[in-house]
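Blinded run. Sample ID left blank on purpose so nobody reads anything into the name before looking at the predicted structure. Input follows.
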Amino acid sequence: MLIGAYIRNGFRILALTKKGTPDLAFGQEGMVSRELNQDADGNVQLLEQPDGSFYVIRSGWDYRVRSSVRPGDAMILVEKMGPDGTWDESWGYGGMEASHFSEADFLFGVAPSATGGFYVAGTAKKGKDYNFLVARFNDDGRPDSTFAGAGFVAVPYPKCMNYGFKVQESPDGSVYLAGASISMFATYAIVRVVDQLEISLPNDQTAFEPSIADKRQQETNTMLIYPNPISGSEARVKVNLEIAEDIEISIFDTSGKLIKLVDAGPQHAGLNEIKLDLADIHDNGIYIVRIASRSHSGMVQIVVADR
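Blinded prediction complete.
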């Protein structure tokens, strides 16, 4: 079993045996590290091939990339690794293939394709829009131009920030993308279907609009964080309280680990705006923010980007 994770200025891959101990036949003492000289974005995904080799797929920028893309803009990067943890430097360009579909591309999930390549699920950023991203790659790590004409599909959804987390190809060739559309009112689970390269969306776009009851609840018990995604060192938290109470803000990563705890102190009845310092959060990704008082609590998902 292989586990990939970003570290400061790079990423690391750990191999474990069935007993959960480091596989000493892999890399150095069961571990392979890659230094990037720059913080990375998104996450690391690993996809095993029939011959025992692995695709290492991630989003970010790499100093080895030679393109017109501005350094620091996130791209989809594909590398190949042998069963023993050695990098295949003869593969692609200097051992890597880089693809850029929008201003910034963020990877959250991968899945094998019946063609021998693989799919990527994520987010394509264009201006202020964050669209669902589905891309299909050939086994050489390059986009499959037979898929949607360019190798990828970017799907917007009105008034929402859209993140694709899981992608799967069905036996009939349809491609399913599961993710989330985040609005200022709520987070909705969304499934998009790519069927014969056509995007299937609800005919009634208002089906995902907040109901009147949702809006009334929003007015009486607001918990809002903006901007979201967050690219700067701080954000603002809006909390609407029925009575004066102390507020505590907890930030967790997607594994449930507590990253930061903030005692916001006493807040008055009505609408409060609290400054949230995020300068000490150095890794891009998705975080869960819990805002709690003695009588109420709620959670908001945020995306930290451009670190």
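Unblinding after everyone has recorded impressions. The chain has two domains: 2-207, 220-304.
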